């Protein structure tokens, strides 16, 4: 599966981690999405502080569209 990112997604990869996004798209749990899009979610261990608050886990939610014309 080839993954092509829009600009917004590239910016968010700095926060989320590229490998976690790939894993979420490939094997995450399907979730509701709007406007003809699809979404998947996956929880990863985190054990770090983000914006002044400590989190043991983080959820990555990937919203995507499958392109039937991609080869």
Q: Would you give an account of this structure?
A:
The chain has one domain. The protein has 2 helices and 3 strands. It has helices at 7-16, 18-27, and strands at residues 29-31, 38-50, 53-64. Strands 1-2-3 form a 3-stranded antiparallel sheet. A hairpin with a 2-residue loop joins β2 and β3.
Question: What is the element string, with H for helices and E for strands?
Answer: HHEEE
Strand content: 35-45%
Largest sheet: 3 strands, antiparallel
The count of helical stretches stands at: 2
As for the number of domains, it is 1
Secondary structure class reads: alpha+beta
Quick structural overview:
The chain has 2 helices and 3 strands; from the N terminus they run ααβββ.
